[in-house]
Each structure stands twice: as C-alpha cells, then as structure tokens.
Task: structure prediction
Amino acid sequence: MRVYLVIIDETEEARAALRFASRRAAKTGGVVHLLALVPKQGFSAFGAIQDTIEEEARERAEMLATGAAGELMVESGQMPQIAVRVGDGQAVIVDYLKDHPEVAALVLGAAAEGGPGPLVSHFTASAGTLPCPLFVVPGGLGEAEIDRLS
Result:
C-alpha cells in the first residue's frame, strides 16, 4: 500500500499538498499520513512556563491535524494516520521516514509567492538522499489543477 506523507500546518501550501496526496492515495489505493510539527521551545529559566508553551503548541498541532483528517475523511472516506512530533522540523521528518519505511512519497507544498519555504528548500536540496520520492506541489495551482495532476 502506498503511503503519502504530508506535513500539515495552517498554510495554504499544506492544504495543496494534502489535496494532492489524498487524490493520489485514492487513485493508487494508498493512504495518507499527516505529520504535525511542534517546534522545540528555546530554553527558559522558568521550566514550568516552557512546558506550558510546549503543551499548548502540541495541543494546537493536534487540533490542526485532527481537523485536516476530518476534512480528508469527509472528502475521500479515508481516515489518515496522524502523528504529532516535537523538535526541529527537518530532523523530525527524517526520523519519521526512517521509522516508517512504508512511506512511498513525501508531499510538500511550495508557496505561491516568494521563496519556497524552509522544508521545501531543505528537502529539494537533499532529495537524492531521501528514502522515497519527493513531490512538491506548486502553491499557484488551484484545486481543479491539483485534481487534474494528481
């Protein structure tokens, strides 16, 4: 079974990547994994405050991923696997790919304007070392175009 890994956040790029991945999964008999990233908070002399900030960020990421999963369930009838991880985004994704060899493709969205973003920049530069193909969905594509290409 093909697994399409999408990094989910609040951006339009993530929505485009999710749409592409869900359509590919439906057409290939695959599934979608959603990975929400929670950045590690910088050191604070007040550990309890730092813990609270991290917990709030984790809860927000979980809500975001659950909401995206619900939308995907309504659209495609398939419930994706959800994971929320704390840490440096690039390292977390690499670790996730190592722990999940069933992932057939990493699907990222690029911004419609400006630079491509840190994850797209990093993973396109190191695409040759990834254990799976990298799909980058251009941010300027509309839903109909994404549907046609997927």
Observations:
- The chain has five helices and five strands.
